[in-house]
């Protein structure tokens, strides 16, 4: 047996070698240069040693290889560097393919990105049939494309059309689905069976070759000139633009790779891929996305914002006050990870309705074979619907998720604290009301914090943890651990009105309303929101939130500000909201009418909007509108950072993307400023302020950064 720091290698009596990849100091293998050097050494032996009849590649970790070395990619600064990297990796893979002996991968778990590209360069691929394992090429989610041959080998295995879908969406498949598409050769139920099938295949195919290296090879479903494929490729750019609006160049590059590469032999096709891969690597979009959605997100998940000296813990029993949509959603995601849940509401009927939400999600999953009857029943058994506060006894954590009314929240807090243990944590799901104020009715304010979930809870990945004036470090740590426990991403913010996400999100919607009031055509406003990369345009989003709720929050904020002896500043969009919502009774989507008319799943802008707000004769450019929508958000995020509402750059960026959908290709609200440069941002902000008001004046922290040539960065 041969062993180094990255793999072990042993040869059985039949001459089949087994290379087990196991990078030291990592939870998962990644495609680093050192790992590939170790693989290259084994491939060289396979080429030279007559007694070595075949090679099986597997992993010593629970997963196979989960992607490329992002650190290496992040250090690339030129197109030439990126091109060489792609070509070097492909050269090794071509050696494997053309060595004249069988090379098989035994995928013992999740296989993503470069790991799957390495597997596709092998002559056969077997995997353990684990529904939790993921197989795919998700590079597009970081603004990249598969640069290790993925754009060329995948269509040659499963066809162009399906490859286009998988790569442009970054879809991750279960092994069973991957087998069904023709991506895998076979499945196994145990590691022993997996390795045996791989060895048997080697013995049965002593002179294995890739299909594309065989005379007469045809791409399944046809190449780029085939009528059916031509039809797909002809509409793909317009479909991609309808979703991405030109903000994600990697999607266009993937389509180009497929079209051009699938007209060529494999070697020339791989060179085409390397050129487009290089273009992606050096793009600002990939730098934005890698910086935030890789480095900063991982820093958060590793506990960057968590108190370091508090032992880790888990919630065993959770109490939820309020069984509406938020409470029901929190109950589901908590019970899903094995937490016992007490779901409390004013009536048993409402509590049962809250539990029924979980049942409906589970029934849908069962119908799609994504769960079993046993797992469904076990999850539902963990949720106790009740009206009795006594049932909260034994809860480690209680989350209040009732209406945004201080009196109601205060009553719930008192009743819960009367029965829960002295060391239990109490959290409010408020989205706007300051935690310190809510904690005033608590008998244990050190145990009180905010846990702001987003709707729908089962789909939205973020939880905003709000720290009040008296919230202890231990309470923060326990809240942080719970958020990770339920599979969500936590950001930590200090207490203030609107906190971080609600405060900044409101600027986007309100700016859209202000535009309408100025005479900007409503359709132009909505197009600008989409072109900016936001998930929904501002008027449609206001309908989703509900004008009634926004008016309630606005009125509450005004009362609070005036109670503090301060002057409430009326936003120009507020008058529009009151005209449409109050005077015309159009309160949003739930009411069936708001800025849009709703007919089932169909919606259209309310025709009377242009009567209420006649469009100006001279309309602003789309870029001006986009800038207003983006700058107002970025500036407010910078103010939150300046005021220490948010504690880190990572929390600010991730919170903006995961919280309200700030354009992911920009890398978050502060990265938007970084990418532009503070000086340019300040200049453009001042231009907008002159035209549209003081709300666009650049935050002081950005002005200072412009003077110092600095960037938003965590220490």
CATH topology of the largest domain: 2-enoyl-CoA Hydratase, Chain A, domain 1
Number of self-contained structural domains = 3
CATH superfamily of the largest domain: 2-enoyl-CoA Hydratase, Chain A, domain 1
What does the radius of gyration come to?
A: 28 Å
**Poorly predicted runs of 5 or more residues:** none
Shape: globular
Order of strands, main sheet, comes to 13-12-11-14-15-16-17-18
> CATH top level of the largest domain?
Alpha Beta
Give an overview of the whole structure.
The chain is α/β, with parallel strands linked by helices. The protein has three domains: 2-282, 2-enoyl-CoA Hydratase, Chain A, domain 1 (Alpha-Beta Complex); 317-497, NAD(P)-binding Rossmann-like Domain (Rossmann fold); 502-644 and 648-708, Orthogonal Bundle (N-(1-d-carboxylethyl)-l-norvaline Dehydrogenase, domain 2). Helices cover 50% and strands 12% of the residues. The chain has an eight-stranded mixed beta sheet with strand order 13-12-11-14-15-16-17-18, sandwiched between helices. Strands 1-2-3-4-5-7-10 form a seven-stranded mixed beta sheet, with helices on both faces. A three-stranded mixed beta sheet has the order 6-8-9. α25 (622-642) crosses α27 (669-676). The longest helix is centred in the C-terminal third of the chain and has 21 residues, at 622-642. It is globular, with a radius of gyration of 28 Å.
């Amino acid at each position: 047996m041969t062993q180094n720091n990255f793999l072990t290698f042993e040869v059985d009596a039949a001459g089949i070698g087994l290379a087990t990849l196991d990078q030291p100091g990592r939870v998962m293998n990644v495609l680093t240069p050192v790992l590939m050097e170790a693989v290259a050494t084994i491939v060289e032996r396979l080429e030279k040693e007559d007694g070595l009849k075949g090679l099986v590649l597997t992993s010593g970790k629970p997963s196979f290889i989960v992607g490329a070395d992002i650190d290496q990619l992040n250090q690339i600064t030129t197109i030439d560097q990126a091109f060489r990297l792609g070509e070097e990796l492909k050269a090794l893979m071509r050696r494997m393919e053309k060595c004249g002996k069988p090379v098989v991968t035994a995928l013992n778990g999740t296989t993503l990105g470069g790991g799957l590209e390495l597997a596709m360069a092998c002559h056969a691929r077997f995997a353990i049939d684990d529904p939790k394992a993921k197989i795919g090429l998700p590079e597009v989610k970081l603004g990249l494309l598969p640069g290790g041959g993925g754009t060329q080998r995948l269509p040659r295995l499963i066809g162009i059309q399906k490859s286009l879908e998988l790569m442009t969406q970054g879809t991750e498949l279960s092994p069973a689905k991957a087998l069904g598409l023709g991506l895998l050769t076979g499945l196994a139920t145990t590691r022993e069976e997996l390795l045996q099938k791989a060895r048997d295949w080697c013995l049965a195919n002593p002179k294995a070759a890739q299909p594309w290296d065989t005379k007469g090879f045809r791409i399944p479903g046809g190449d780029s000139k085939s009528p059916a494929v031509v039809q797909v490729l002809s509409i793909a750019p317009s479909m991609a633009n309808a979703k991405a609006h030109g903000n994600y160049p990697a999607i266009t590059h993937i389509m180009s790779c497929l079209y051009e590469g699938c007209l060529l032999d494999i070697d020339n096709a791989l060179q085409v891929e390397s050129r487009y891969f290089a273009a992606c690597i050096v793009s600002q979009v990939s730098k934005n996305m890698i910086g935030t959605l890789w480095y900063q997100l991982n820093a958060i998940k590793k506990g960057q914002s968590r108190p370091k000296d508090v032992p880790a813990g888990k919630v065993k029993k959770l109490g939820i006050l309020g069984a509406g949509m938020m409470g029901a959603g929190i109950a589901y995601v908590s019970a899903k990870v094995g937490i016992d849940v007490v779901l409390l509401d004013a009536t048993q009927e409402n509590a049962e309705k809250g539990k029924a939400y979980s049942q409906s999600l589970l029934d849908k999953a069962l119908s799609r074979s994504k769960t079993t009857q046993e797992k469904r029943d076990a999850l539902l058994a963990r949720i106790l619907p009740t009206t009795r506060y006594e049932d909260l006894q034994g809860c480690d954590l209680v989350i209040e998720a009732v209406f945004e009314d201080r009196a109601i929240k205060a009553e719930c807090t008192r009743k819960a604290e009367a029965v829960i243990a002295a060391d239990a944590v109490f959290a409010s799901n408020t989205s706007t009301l300051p935690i310190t104020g809510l904690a005033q009715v608590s008998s244990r304010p050190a145990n009180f914090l905010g846990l702001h979930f987003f709707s729908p809870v089962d789909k939205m990945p973020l939880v905003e943890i709000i720290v009040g004036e008296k919230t202890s470090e231990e309470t923060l740590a326990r809240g942080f651990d719970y958020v990770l426990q339920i599979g969500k991403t936590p950001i930590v913010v200090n207490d203030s009105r609107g906190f971080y996400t609600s405060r900044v999100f409101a600027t986007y919607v309100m700016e859209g309303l202000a535009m309408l009031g100025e005479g900007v055509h409503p359709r132009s406003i909505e197009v600008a929101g989409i072109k900016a990369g936001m998930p929904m345009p501002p008027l449609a989003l206001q309908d989703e939130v509900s004008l009634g709720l926004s008016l309630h929050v606005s009125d509450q904020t005004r009362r609070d500000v005036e109670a503090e002896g301060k002057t409430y500043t009326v936003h120009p969009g507020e008058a529009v909201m009151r005209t449409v919502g109050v005077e015309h009774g159009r309160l949003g989507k739930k009411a069936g009418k708001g800025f849009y008319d709703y007919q089932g799943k169909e919606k259209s802008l309310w025709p009377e909007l242009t009567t209420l707000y006649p469009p100006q004769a001279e309309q602003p450019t789309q870029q001006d509108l986009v800038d207003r929508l983006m700058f107002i958000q970025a500036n407010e995020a910078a103010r939150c950072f300046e005021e220490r509402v948010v504690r880190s750059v990572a929390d600010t960026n991730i919170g903006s993307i995961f919280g309200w959908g700030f354009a992911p290709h920009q890398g978050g609200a502060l990265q938007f400023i970084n990418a532009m440069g503070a000086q340019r941002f300040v200049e453009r902000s001042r231009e907008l302020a002159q035209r549209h008001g003081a709300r666009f004046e650049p935050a002081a922290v950005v002005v200072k950064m412009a003077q110092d040539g600095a960037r938003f960065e965590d220490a």
